[in-house]
Amino acid sequence: MPLDFIPAVGSADFTEAQERLLTLANRLGRERFAPRAAQWDREASFPFANYDDLREAGLLALCVPREFGGEGADFATYCMVGAEIGRFCGATALTYNMHICSTMWTGMLADGIAMTPEQRAEHEARRELHFARVVKDGAIYAQPFSEGSAAAAGHAPFGTSARKVEGGWVLNGRKIFASLSGAADYYGILCTEECADHSPDMRDTLYIAVPGKAEGLTVTGEWDPMGMRGTVSRTLLLKDVFVADQEQLMPRGVYYKAAQTWPAMFFTLSPTYLGVAQAAYDFTVQYLRGEVPGQPPVKRRMYPTKQIAVAQMRIQLENMRSIFWRVIHEACASPGKDARMRLYAAHYSVMEGANDIARLAIRTCGGQSMLKDLPLERLYRDSRCGALMLPWTAELILDRMGRETLYESGERDE
Ligand SMILES: Cc1cc2nc3c(=O)[nH]c(=O)nc-3n(C[C@H](O)[C@H](O)[C@H](O)COP(=O)(O)OP(=O)(O)OC[C@H]3O[C@@H](n4cnc5c(N)ncnc54)[C@H](O)[C@@H]3O)c2cc1C
């Protein structure tokens, strides 16, 4: 059945499964997430009701492989669905991304990373437990790796440490901006193994699930940010937190390899912001046509300046959609330089473009449109947050692209 709406990624030749999943995301978004979005934003509270809906719809298991009872969606399909959710509630889409990554990294992505037969057997056994929690219990995973140091930018080992003890690990450290804090059942913590024979090294990164109820784990700090307020990204403190061996989400050394070989794993933050851009565009069209529900039917579409601004917004949106569409389909392990540059460019274009479109939307719709009973001012605040996300902030992408364009791997100036 063809779609009866245009998804945030644009119209395309979708598979049947993609049509079904996009329809589900659009219905949930339109009927449930959009009407609730102002509440999470006003209260800076977590969208629990949306997660109940995602769980009931089976969308928490979107990227759990089929053989483990999930939907088995691939990278591109997740990105399409994420964008559709972001169109209706940015905070839900962004936190959903954190959850999805914990299943995608251990699922499809890990399948493409070289492992020894022992590592593969260990991974197979442990991920079964982790997937069952999502599929059978509807568990939610968070993805806190930021620490306020160079680690989250990928330039230094994580300061959070893991010491090997009998039957498991003892974790100590601090994570900032932990979206879903207090709401997640498990936190996928990136930390550095303490090795007696050498100083901390990024190759010793471990990826371990810490249960939300673990002794020694506390959520602290205020949460009253400008945008993406429903993500509730507070600080996690880990003080001698013991976790059993089975909580390891990837075997030793594999996260480092994954981060090196699968750069698109960091692109998954983009779909949320393509959705936010689409929402700002949708609102502008509706507003200028005088069709926003609950508002007087005042038309503003007859002014040439409005028509030009909408055209500019559409051009930017189409550019974003095009590069987004291309990179989500070519995402793979070890992409060539050309594809890697395009991936960076796509991420930058979406993160900066979302804010540009939201900015134009407010300028074009005018003063009444930014009152808090309408969604535009929230979209504007949310849209600014994408470029701040490590490891690929808009600035760091410019850094990487410039350097990697002018220097081939290993090249130096004397
Ligand atoms: C709404 C929201 C939700 C978030 N959710 C999560 C989450 O769930 N999990 C998580 O791990 N993180 C999350 N983050 C955190 C995010 O990924 C960044 O870690 C955070 O925004 C960094 O803020 P900072 O002030 O510590 O940045 P800093 O590290 O102080 O950097 C400031 C700026 O300097 C630049 N910069 C940083 N490092 C370097 C460098 N080495 N060289 C040159 N320039 C550099 C960057 O452009 C950066 O924007 C979230 C952030 C936001 C805003």
Automatic annotation (TrEMBL):
Cofactor: FAD
Alphabetized InterPro entries for the sequence: Acyl-CoA_Oxase/DH_mid-dom, Acyl-CoA_Oxase/DH_mid-dom_sf, AcylCo_DH-like_C, AcylCo_DH/oxidase_C, AcylCoA_DH/ox_N, AcylCoA_DH/ox_N_sf, AcylCoA_DH/oxidase_NM_dom_sf
Keyword Flavoprotein appears in the UniProt entry: yes
Domain Acyl-CoA oxidase/dehydrogenase middle as annotated: residue spans: 160-241
Residues in Acyl-CoA dehydrogenase/oxidase C-terminal domain copies: 272-386
GO molecular function: acyl-CoA dehydrogenase activity; flavin adenine dinucleotide binding
Record's keyword terms, sorted: FAD, Flavoprotein
Domain Acyl-CoA dehydrogenase/oxidase N-terminal: 15-104
UniProt entry tagged with the keyword Metal-binding: no
Protein family (similarity comment): Belongs to the acyl-CoA dehydrogenase family.
Listed name of the protein: BEC protein
Species this chain originates from: Cupriavidus basilensis
